[in-house]
Amino acid sequence: MAKLFLPALCATVLFFSSCSNKMSSDDPLPETFDPSVFVGSQNQIVYALDPTNGKKHWEYALNANLKSTPLLFNSFLYLPAQDGYIHKMDPKRGKLVSKISIGAALTSTPIGDGNLVYIIADNGILYAIRASDDGIQWQFNTNNTVASSVDAFTSSPAISGSNIIFGSTDGKVYAVDKANGTQVWAYDAGTGHKFSSSPAVSGGHIYIGNEDNNLYALHTDGTFEWKFTTGGSIKSSPIAYAGSILVGSDDYKLYCVDSSSGLVRWAFPTGERVISSPYASGQVIYVGSYDDSLYAIRIHDGSRKWAFPTGGTLRSSPLVYNGVVYFGSVDKFLYAIDTANGFIRWEQNINGSIESSPVIDDLSGKSYNATISGLSVD
After folding, report:
1. Nearest-angstrom CA–CA distance, 281 and 107
2. In DSSP terms, which residues pair with 241 in a beta bridge?
3. What is the pLDDT of residues 349-374, one digit of tens each?
4. Counting Cβ atoms within 10 Å, is residue 211 exposed (0-12), middle (13-18) or buried (19+)?
């Protein structure tokens, strides 16, 4: 006959009874996210990649090409597509929050301030969109449209105090009150003088390129100060850095111009047009060229630090983050290059020509943007 070990049996029953009474609820684990670099392409898809290795976090089908650069603003990612819709995204999860219909092609890069997002459509209208409910707060019409072609460029807006500044292909630079959309002033360079470059605002001045081969310097009240003439059309958007204005030209050069006098400090030659807007970081200027290369140029004398060749034209503007410069090429690759030596960290084929510039979200609340649309440099 089997012996019963009652004390052990009781202990076992009590043990399981105790465990069942203290079991935790089956709550889901908290979500974790990593920094992302966002880039769009001509394959109608936007990608979020890991900045350290290029691995994909998510992708989103726009069903339209993306030429303009995304805007990371107020915890949302705005994607202006060429079919006239702005896709407002959750940047961490890659989920669509809403779609905002503009009704005209979008190739310029938006900028945000307060509760408003500002963007210029290819119909020549500047829109102010409420970030809170996606409604249009106001619109300002220049009565000018942008030609539809691969080489057509639309000036992106910049902020100067209480005004939105942008150029137009009607030959004017406009200042519009950012609160109500009324015109404050307009500088007129004349018929046929197209402003397709985006303005840079710095130190009480506005700097903007023109297809008449000139870089213009205006006071923030719209009065003319100086202009600098290059040997070709200027579609590249200038930046202000270390007392200098840096801008590319169709004459195959990147220029460094004294911000006060408008006199040239140096001109760096490339093998083709410079449409890409430069980026400055750590006393080095990074810029792409139609000769398929990205250049790192020392600000103090215009000497070349290094050059990195790709397999296609560079229309995308570069972005520097944590010692790495990110940029896209028409060869369909997004590149991450070490700023110290020009060596490749990683490359990612996204199966579409890249004209859009990259944007980085490091989850700190600060966004890192290329310098197009007047956004600041390091």
Report:
1. 26
2. 244
3. 999 999 999 999 998 877 788 776 54
4. buried
- Written as one letter, the residue type at 24 is S
Question: 33: number of CA atoms within 13 Å, CB side?
Answer: 15
H helix or E strand, kind and range, residue 17: helix 6-21
The answer to whether 166 touches 199, Cβ cutoff 8 Å, is yes
Beta 36-40 vs 359-361: how paired, if at all?
antiparallel
Q: Tell me how crowded residue 50 is: count the other CB atoms within 10 A of its CB.
A: 16
Pair 316, 276: CB distance under 8 Å: yes
Q: What is the phi/psi pair of residue 269, to 5°?
A: -85, 140
User: Which CATH number, 3.10.20.30, 1.10.3720.10, 2.130.10.10, 2.60.40.1120, labels domain 35-374?
Assistant: 2.130.10.10
* 151-165, 212-226, 279-293, 359-373: least confidently modelled range: 359-373
Tokens of 305: 């630090």
Looking at the DSSP bridge assignments, the partners of residue 280 are 285
pTM across the whole model:
0.89
d(CA 61, CA 321): 26
Cβ pair 122, 168 in contact under 8 A? no
| Cβ neighbours of residue 162 closer than 8 Å, sequence gap 6 or more | 177, 178, 179
| Contact present, 44 and 73 (Cβ < 8 Å) | no
Residue 84 carries which side chain, given as an amino acid letter? G
